[in-house]
Amino acid sequence: MANNTVNPLPRQVADAYVDAFIELDPLTGTYLGVAESSRRLPDFSPAGGRALADLARTTLDRLAEAERQPGADSDIERRCARLLRERLTAELAVHEAGEQLRAVSNIHSPVHSVRQTFTMMPTESAEDWSAVAERLRAVPTALESYREALAEGLAQKLPAGPRQVATVIGQLDEWIGTDGGWFAEFVAQGPEELRAELRESAATATGGLVALRDWLRDVYAPAVEGAPEVVGRERYARWSRLWNGTDLDLDEAYAYGWSEFHRILAEMRTEAEKILPGAKTPWEALAHLDVHGPHIEGVEEVRVWLQELMDEAIEALDGTHFELAERVKRVESRIAPAGSAAAPYYSSPSEDFSRPGRTWLPTMGETRFPEYDLVSTWYHEGVPGHHLQLAQWAHVADRLSRYQTTVGHVSANCEGWALYAERLMDELGFLGDPGRRLGYLDAQMMRSTRVIVDIGMHLELPIPEDSPFHPGERWTPELAREFFGLHSGRPAGFVDSELVRYLGIPGQAIGYKLGERAWLAGRDAAREAHGDAFDAKAWHMAALSQGSLGLDDLLAELSAL
Questions:
Q1: Residue 345: inside a domain
Q2: What is the pLDDT of residues 81-125, one digit of tens each?
Q3: Residue 521 included in any domain
Q4: Are residues 337 and 415 in the same domain?
């Protein structure tokens, strides 16, 4: 063991990378529950980006040496090494293309990460709130470093899309507010003895938002007016690699999206007939459910209802299809802060589980919530979806490496599992009610249309001749928005938010269906290999205990379980 200190194995190299990465990115430290990170914010400037890239290059050099050491060829070291190399190589490709210099998105950008980190911080003690105050005072400097990166992007002729910029300006308006803003509302729950300091720190942070908003509105937005909204094949392939952990055949993936569109549409029509006989489209039946179907009235009431839904799922699945540790069974339902994007989301537990996993519902100003639109979504975000996978990763981190269960996250693996989880609940009979099942199919349809429009508009592909929508034309963002709206039960605000999301983070939204395909194929292969001896519970737990894998490796590893 002493020799490995001098000549580390891949898992040790990976975990040393995590420690160094957290030093440069304290937001990730907070996400993982590292107390030392709680008073700082990252440097988002070009210099900060170069520091992260230098760390990645140095780590790849150390990894190459580690792979030559005795013991590096074991399965556990090999899997970690493959993940680390693939992730860092993909991240460097994005960095070297200057993508961090035009990182404007309505859901995934430095300014969103800064705000969200405060919802992840502990707030139980005066010391916790003191850290909040200090970090709030760091917000203007962090946002100034972000402005520096965007300004460098303009200088290098690397603009963000105008639609993303306009949306973020609107989000900043909402966060700034007229009565102290989001930060003031956040610190209002702090202890009385720190109230004055917290109010002053919140005002400082809000001042940073105002400065960023004004610069985006007055300088950046005019400079990017008329810039392309779509990224083209080369940039899309680079982003797709980052989000999916594989070099996809994008034309095959586009065709797969269409095949799923037609399959799901046929199922939706069958289910819609049970709800509203004679409905012209499935979405007419969903509109009927909006008015006449079961619903939850009230924001706090829907939070409680979603908590009960997850608690019931844990009780039903534990011991039958999963074998869950006690700390994995704890998950909290939360309401998302105002000004969030429209899609619900999940946040992982801290590494020591002192902060549990949480699901977040953006209410978008609504107070009435139809059940059909929530059930399968919470199977996706909560149980057995994101929560069971990511909390299980935290639970088994000591058996793998810290990197594989945290920073090495591959979006398509996680989103694919969550979509598989929805389908699993359908297979197990939890969606027998026609309304709930139509809501599930509507969510499946949304993930299929994501593949179609995300690839289609960014690559400006032709719409197939057998499409019910504008056959033979080439995709544009305007056509994508119309198509999505026609084939979704979501309100217009959600559809608009989704389109901006796809424009701002190309290649991410396709990972849901493509990841689900890998999970289903891996289960089918394992079931075929084991025959009647296939144990679904054992397979699920082994699959959830592997840590992160890119789609390059996921199918092979799942098939071998």
A1: yes
A2: 999 999 999 999 999 999 999 999 999 999 999 999 999 999 999
A3: no
A4: yes
From residue 129, give the alpha-carbon distance in Å to each of 138, 195, 196: 14, 10, 12
Residue 489: per-residue pLDDT? 84
Give the residue from 97, 127, 146 where a domain finishes: 97
Q: Which residues contact 100 (CB under 8 A, 6 or more apart)?
A: 49, 94, 149
How would you write 461-498 as a 3-class SS string?
CECCCCCCCCCCCECCHHHHHHHHHHCCCCCHHHHHHH
Place of tokens 């990976």: 14
From residue 443, alpha-carbon distances to 269, 375, 546 in Å are 14, 10, 27
Exposed, middle or buried: residue 266 (CB in 10 Å: 0-12, 13-18, 19+)? exposed
Query: Of the candidates 323, 311, 383, which has an alpha carbon nearest to the alpha carbon of residue 535?
Result: 323
340 or 101, which is more confident = 101
User: Would you say residue 157 has pLDDT above 80?
Assistant: yes
Question: Does residue 548 belong to any structural domain of this protein?
Answer: no
pTM metric for this prediction: 0.93
Query: Measured between alpha carbons, how far is 384 from 392 in angstroms, rounded to an integer?
Result: 11
Q: Which domain holds residue 197?
A: 104-227
On whether both 184 and 330 belong to a single domain, the answer is no
Bridge partner list, 358: 332, 347
463's CB contacts (< 8 A; 6+ apart) are: 456, 469, 470, 471, 472, 473, 474, 475, 479
Q: Which residues does 476 contact at the CB level (< 8 Å), separation at least 6? A: 457, 460
pLDDT at 203 (0 to 100): 97
Residues in the chain: 561
Is the domain of 12 the same as that of 152? no
Of the residues 511, 532, 548, which one is the last residue of a structural domain? 511
The span from the CA of 35 to the CA of 29, in Å, is 8
For residue range 470-503, what is the model confidence (pLDDT) as tens digits?
A: 999 999 999 999 999 999 888 888 899 999 999 9
Instruction: Give the count of domains, the chain.
Output: 3
Residue 5: band (very low, low, confident or very high) from pLDDT cuts 50, 70, 90: low
Highest mean pLDDT among 4-13, 139-148, 397-406: 139-148
- DSSP 8-state secondary structure symbol assigned to residue 336: P
Residue 556 lies in a domain: no
Helical H runs in 382-532? 386-395, 402-405, 411-427, 434-459, 477-486, 492-504, 511-530
Residue 83 sits in the same domain as residue 110: no
Cα–Cα distance, 487 to 338 (Å, whole number)? 27
